[in-house]
Write a structure and sequence with these properties.
Helix content of chain B: under 10%
Distance between the termini of chain A: 37 Å
Mean pLDDT of chain B: 92
Order of helices and strands of chain B: EEEEEEEEEEE
Number of helices of chain B: 0
Oligomer: heterodimer
Largest sheet of chain B: 7 strands, mixed
Number of helices of chain A: 0
Radius of gyration of chain B: 13 Å
Low-confidence stretches of chain B: none
Structural class of chain A: mainly beta
Shape of chain B: globular
Strand content of chain B: over 45%
Mean pLDDT of chain A: 89
Shape of chain A: globular
Helix content of chain A: under 10%
Order of helices and strands of chain A: EEEEEEEEEEE
Strand content of chain A: over 45%
Distance between the termini of chain B: 36 Å
Number of strands of chain A: 11
Largest sheet of chain A: 6 strands, mixed
């Protein structure tokens, strides 16, 4: 079965609010996790990554949290903007080159 | 500084025809990966290539699919005798080197429709 998955397929958020997108993984050997953003008709775009020896990493308006105890990953987007509307994928890498993607969460920002 | 380039962006083929998808990696990248995305699903790894070598094709169907990355020119994903189930978006990614440390940069994809 899938080793990486997302809790909710869709998320609707008011512009300016914070968004939280969740992801569960089952492979405890995974040591590297990445969040990608995919806009309609485009390829996945790297947002932020985190290694298994960390539990939090911050970027510009985004924060990734990793809870290895429950094998859970989340992406927080601060002050969500219309341009954040997209499908968000978490992906895992267990030490080699293969990325395993979850099914994705569609984020829709309401004006 | 061009990113990963893929062409064509859209490809329509009738059942039984051949599809050829091309990928030019980012400048300086010698590692290429192909992924397939079915509607409403995440990307699935197909094959990993370096120049003139197939490193891992474990995600690629044994029949009808093949991939190459010649010394000169783009990487090619070839699908022979296409069937409706081959309709999907095919993404190519490239990296400077291999392993979990190095980011894979994705191209815009080729959307294959089999009629």
């Amino acid at each position: 079965g899938e080793s990486v998955g997302l809790h909710l397929p869709t998320l609707s958020v008011q512009e300016g609010d914070n968004s939280i997108i969740n992801c569960a993984y089952s492979n405890s050997a995974s040591d590297y996790f990445i969040w990608y953003k995919q806009e309609s008709g485009k390829g996945p775009q790297f947002i932020i990554d985190i290694r298994s020896n960390m539990d939090k990493r911050q970027g510009q308006r985004v924060t990734v949290l990793l809870n290895k105890t429950v094998k859970h990953l989340s992406l927080q987007i601060a002050a969500t903007q219309p341009g954040d509307s997209a499908v968000y994928f978490c992906a895992e890498n267990n030490g080699d080159y293969k990325l395993s993607f979850g099914a994705g969460t569609t984020v829709t920002v309401r004006a | 500084n061009a990113g990963v380039m893929q062409n064509p962006r859209h490809l329509v083929r009738r059942r039984g025809q051949e599809a050829r998808l091309r990928c030019s990696p980012m400048k300086g990248h010698s590692h290429v990966y192909w992924y397939r995305q079915l509607p409403e699903e995440g990307l699935k790894f197909m094959v990993y290539l370096q120049k003139e070598n197939i490193i891992d094709e474990s995600g690629m169907p044994k029949e009808r699919f093949s991939a190459e990355f010649p010394k000169e020119g783009p990487s090619i994903l070839r699908i022979q005798q296409v069937v409706r189930g081959d309709s999907a978006a095919y993404f190519c990614a490239s990296s400077e080197t291999s392993g979990s440390t190095y980011e894979q940069y994705f191209g815009p994809g080729t959307r294959l429709t089999v009629t």
